[in-house]
Design a protein that fits this description.
The N and C termini lie far apart (27 Å). The chain has a three-stranded antiparallel beta sheet, covered by helices on one side. A hairpin with a 2-residue loop joins strand 2 and strand 3. By secondary structure, the chain is of the alpha+beta class. The protein has helices spanning 2-11, 28-36; strands at residues 18-24, 40-47, 50-58. The chain has one domain (2-58). It is globular.
Length: 62
């Protein structure tokens, strides 16, 4: 289900050059899903007592 949702989000706007998303540091399953689907971590920010993990994926054809 998660991979299907990512693919849909990636195809919604055909002229988009990249997609960015984030998840909590404790969401190990999300982090694995994003990494497995070509997203790379770009940084972390603090939100209260938690770290938010930011990801990006280029949608341009190479």
């Amino acid at each position: 289900m998660g991979t299907r949702l990512l693919r849909h989000a990636e195809s919604v706007h055909p002229r988009a050059q990249e997609i960015r998303l984030f998840t909590g540091e404790r969401s190990a399953a999300n982090i694995r899903l994003y990494t497995r689907n070509g997203y790379r971590e770009t940084g972390r920010t603090t939100a209260g007592a938690y770290q938010i993990v930011h990801f990006v994926k280029s949608l341009r054809e190479t």
